[in-house]
């Protein structure tokens, strides 16, 4: 049976995006695994606070996908999109577990009051923030690529709502936030504690008060205490919004 006009280019587009997504998912998984090992070398990472919440997110995604397929007008016709979603989630699982590992290390930093210990804690916390942003960027790329591939899959399906692409893109962004937000909050909370410990002693005079205030602001900027969750997510996944919008452009009207 000859393919319908326009079906073959759409199939090639979907296949190319699927292959790219497969490679990206593998790279993100390998990077997340490497991050996990590096974090575990700092302090042990209990599976209860890292693997378990990642498994919960993965199970929730499976429930949503299964429910959406069961209530669809034509069950089974969305297998292309479902396979891409599962592929992206599988690739991002290791990165998500690593991000929960960052949260655990930030929460379990040794409490100390001596200057050397506080300095070591600040250096470690800055490193944890950098480790958190790397897998977040990888997850954002997975969401963007899977959104584009889902759009190509919808082009080949009959009566598939194009709004599904925007819903998927928003859901993927929210999932990245679910992984990112707890770790970012733990880093911010621990950073506030370190800043307070570093400037626990009252200033001797007004001049010292101004100088300490400037130093405190600089330290807060280094640790990232002054950043909001929204600004951090925008910095971690800057290309996500435009790619989701681009996916909606080539959908049928």
Description:
By secondary structure, the protein is mostly helical. Helices cover 78% and strands 0% of the residues. The protein is elongated. The two termini are 27 Å apart. The model has no long low-confidence stretch (mean pLDDT 77).
Q: Structural class of the helix and strand makeup?
A: mainly alpha
The protein's oligomeric status is single chain
Outline type = elongated
Quote the beta fraction.
under 5%
| Series of H and E elements | HHHHHHHH
- Span from first to last CA? 27 Å
Protein traits:
mainly alpha; 78% helix; 8 helices; 253 residues; single chain; elongated
Summarize the structure.
This protein has 253 residues and is an all-alpha fold. The protein has eight helices and no strands.
List the helices and strands and how they pair.
Blueprint: H1 7-42, H2 51-70, H3 79-107, H4 115-155, H5 163-198, H6 206-223, H7 229-236, H8 240-249
């Amino acid at each position: 049976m000859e393919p319908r006009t326009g079906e073959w280019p759409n199939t090639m587009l979907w296949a190319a995006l699927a292959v790219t997504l497969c490679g990206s998912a593998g790279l993100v998984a390998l990077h997340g695994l490497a991050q996990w090992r590096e974090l575990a070398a700092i302090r042990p990472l209990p599976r209860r606070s890292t693997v378990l919440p990642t498994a919960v997110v993965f199970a929730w995604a499976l429930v949503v996908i299964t429910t959406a397929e069961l209530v669809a007008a034509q069950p089974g016709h969305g297998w292309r999109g479902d396979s891409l979603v599962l592929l992206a989630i599988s690739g991002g699982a290791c990165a998500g577990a690593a991000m929960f590992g960052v949260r655990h290390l930030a929460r379990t930093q040794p409490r100390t009051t001596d200057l050397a210990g506080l300095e070591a804690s600040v250096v470690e916390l800055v490193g944890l923030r950098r480790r958190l942003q790397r897998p977040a960027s990888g997850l954002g790329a997975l969401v963007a690529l899977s959104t584009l591939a889902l759009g190509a899959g919808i082009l080949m399906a009959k009566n598939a709502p194009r709004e599904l692409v925007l819903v998927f893109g928003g859901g993927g962004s929210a999932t990245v936030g679910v992984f990112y937000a707890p770790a970012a909050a733990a880093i911010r909370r621990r950073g506030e504690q370190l800043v307070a410990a570093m400037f626990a002693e009252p200033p001797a005079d007004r001049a010292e008060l101004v100088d300490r205030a400037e130093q405190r602001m600089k330290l807060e900027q280094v640790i990232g205490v002054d950043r909001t969750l929204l600004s951090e997510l925008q910095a971690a996944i800057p290309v996500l919004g435009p790619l989701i919008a681009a996916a909606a452009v080539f959908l049928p009207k």
